[in-house]
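seq:
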Amino acid sequence: MTGLSSYTILHIANTSEENKECLAQYGRLQCTCVRVQS
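struct:
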């Protein structure tokens, strides 16, 4: 875990392999997590 701070939650019903771990952390299956590149 590099920190969930680098992820943002989008209200989109979509799941990806990488997002599964992020979703599991938040427990939101109806949301997708994408990496935020600052």
